[in-house]
Amino acid sequence: MESREIVEIVDLNILGQVCPACLLVALDALNNHEESLRCGTKRLVVRTDHRDSTRTIPKAARKMGYDVEVKKVDSCYEISIGRKYEPTR
Amino acid sequence: MNQPDEEKDALRRRCAELEAENRAYARYIRDKTNHLLGVIGTKELEEDELDDQALIKLDPIGIVARSFLQILTNLNQTIDELREAKNELQAIFDATGVGISIVDRNFVVERCNEKQREMLVDSSVEEVVGRHCFEVYCDRNAPTSECPALDSFETGKAALVREVQKKGRWFQLVTTPFSRAEDGSINRVIEVSMDITEKKKVEDAEKELREFCQTERRKLATVIESLSEGLLVVDEQGRIVSCNLAADEITEQRIGENCNRPLDDAIAEFAPLLRSDAGNVQGVEVMTRTRQGYDLLLSVNVGCLSDNEGRPLGHVLTFRDITEEKKRAELYHRAEKLAAIGQLSAGVAHELNTPLGSVLGYARLLLKDKALPDNLKNWAEIIAEQAKKSSTIIQGLLRFARQSNPAHRCLEHCFLNDVIQRTLPVLSTELDKRKIELISELNPVAPVVADPQELEQLVLNLTMNAMQAIGEKGCVRIETAQAGSKVVMKISDDGPGVPEEIRFRIFDPFFTTKAPGEGTGLGLSLCSGIVSDMGGAIDIAGGEDRGATFIVSLPASDAVEGSGDLHE
């Protein structure tokens, strides 16, 4: 991800939900925004308070070829998913 | 039961059937969804978490299917990238300048690039892959203990072997663990071969050059150390960088042990030579002083040092002690001058001797004439006496001129004590008249090879010189002693002594401190000549104010030297 690009943040709030419903909701969002996530114009930020989600969602997103960052914000987690950085070939 | 009721029952049953079907479908969807979630790696859906209606509305199969599509697309993309990378690696594998092969645990070559084949495999071998590496690379039946692959398999670490010779060239082999078996042991290694022939040639040439430089450096160091001249190397800041042994010896300092100190500290007198803009200088005379306080006259050469590009690096100073050389040169000039005086004197003496003989002869004839009046007879006596006196002076001059002529000598073994005892009575009348006490202390000495008459003259001249120095009353002391291979005679007086400023001239001919007419100035000069011709030395010692001691040192005769045959 290049810092100079303008990236739209898609906020997905699934606080209070537990797996695997969380995973299905996140996968649905990844499916719906696939094109813009792939080209880097959008980045999906999933906010969850379910600890398992910080393992299952990143794992699935990485298999789909996305870049994933997880960080703890206050009492919940933010899983940021977007275009994987690829070196210029 | 009427018809409407029957229809209602039928509808109710149908609804029940449909609901059962719906539940079955929902169950099916839930099962499939759980199955797919299991594939993704998460747990199953809980019914209270997501009821059937919400489940159907969510369409989890659709979601997972689309996600699988993304995963599949990503996998395909990854496969393409891997294939591309594999092709790149294959291209590198084939095109690289080093030989590469992959060898398994049984030393069987799994892969081998063209370069490896070219470098290590004989052209007669057609197939390399599938054969043992020790067979195709090393022409052996088994790996040797030096085999790097064997080392890597055993240690699990990279191994290197330098200077493997094959096909007339030199190679370096490196094996690196490549993959491991389930038990963790290394089951494949990559072997990389590099042609180091050119590098080895360069290394050998460098080694040869380094050895040559070290040899030359040692040679140069030996030459510098063996120089009799002192040598100092000084850097641009005027600090001593190195010096040789002779520099320490000449300056009586330990400059070599204190290198890197300023030249000013060691020999301050050299510093102006470096500050001058003259560049290289030759033969500059510099007066300095040793640690013991002796004056030291040095002849100094200065050369400028520079690097390959002409940048100044400092100076090299070479110097030698010319103190004695300078003194010898002065003595040589004086000796030449004296020789000229001697020749002149001999010529004049010879020319005067003949007419003086006539004067004396005729004076004696006149004295024999009995008819000669008394007053004329007195005059004739005076003429004869003065002519005789003049003749004595002339004989002295002739002796001085002849002193370096060995043909006139009659050399024999002489005992100095005998000569002294024979000579001293001659002076007894004069000693008594002047109230001069003569003390002799004659110790056993070895004989010397000399002309006895010259030896007598030596004793006589030195004793008379002492008496003349004393004047009317005093004491003359004559001592003899053996000092190693030398026979030493000391003649001392308690006269006024010899001032420092004329000491170096008292052995010169015609040099005298007596009033004109009282001395010829030839006595000590004759002594010096006699002693010098005998291979000995004469010197003067004693205080400036009172007394003088003439020390004569003569070589003892070889015939009896060391035999203990000393003579009293």
Automatic annotation (TrEMBL), chain A:
Gene3D superfamilies: TusA-like domain
A Pfam family reported for this protein in Swiss-Prot or TrEMBL: TusA
GO molecular function: methyltransferase activity
Keyword terms: Methyltransferase, Transferase
A GO biological-process term: methylation
Top-rank taxon, per record: Bacteria
Alphabetized InterPro entries for the sequence: TusA-like (IPR001455), TusA-like_sf (IPR036868)
UPF0033 domain mapped to chain residues: 12-81
Name this polypeptide is given: tRNA methyltransferase
Organism from which the protein derives: Geoalkalibacter subterraneus
